[in-house]
Prior knowledge:
By secondary structure, the protein is of the alpha/beta class. It has helices spanning 17-32, 50-58, 103-112, 134-147, 172-191, 195-200, 230-242, 253-257, 269-294, 299-304; strands spanning 6-8, 37-44, 76-82, 85-91, 96-97, 100-101, 116-118, 120-126, 155-160, 205-207, 215-216, 222-223, 249-251.
Amino acid sequence: MASQMIREWAGINQFPTATQDKLLGLLGRLKQENVSTMTILVMGKGGVGKSSTVNSILGERVAAVSAFQTEALRPMMCSRTRAGFTLNIIDTPGLIEGGYVNEHALEIIKRFLLNKTIDVLLYVDRLDSYRVDNLDRQVVKAITEAFGIDLWRRGLVVLTHAQLSPPDGLSYDEFLSRRSEAVLRIVRLGARIRKQDFQNHPIPVVLVENSGRCDTNELGEKVLPNGAVWLPNLVEKITDVISNGTKPILVDKKLIEGPNPNERGKIWIPIILALQYFFVIRPIRQGISDDINQETRPLWELRDMGLADRRY
């Protein structure tokens, strides 16, 4: 982290005063909990609005966004500081290539994150998608296998393109509920989280609208059709995750490479050796000793040893 250039978070000044006050209040809450640095990892498929969400949070264009531009293969970390608080956001390439999980992109992300600590995962998808499929599940599975199931304890589902009119006469809240349930179910199945654990530690769902067509309230803040001021709401959910009692995820070599196969089962070696001695080697030795003691020696051997009856 220290090698990254950290700049003053000037982009926050672009937000309406009400939004600035809310964001600074949330960061102040974290500082009261002795949290002065926050690192957010943004992941998901391509074209779902990951980079746009990074730009929206920072209030400046730090990640290139274009409908006609191929996503960069390398992750990018932007660091900003404000009032003694450092915010790091890591934008990553999409994880789908040609209808499959892009293992090469995932490997690049893993190497980029080596020795970094992740405080929050933003798993980004679109609200205006109407289905989930096995490919979504494979993306979640790939993230879990790369960084561990505990990452989801620090996770948020972010649904972009939230300024929409629901289809088929559904209300906005009803459409949101159905779409959220579908995505969360895919996360649970893809990450293989037990249903009870998922209920005990639910993953929050947050709405985002990065486009300029987002409505605003009387204070100039961007609001969604359900009336939520989405940017402060997103940051508030992020701070809630940091304060939920779980540990941040350190992406160390052991995490990304898995356990050393040579270390597997070493704890059982002394036990196995002891069992072999008491149940195999020791009985064999005892049996050999008993056979030797019970063996009838030939007369000539006894005579040579002075044990044979002299009459013979």
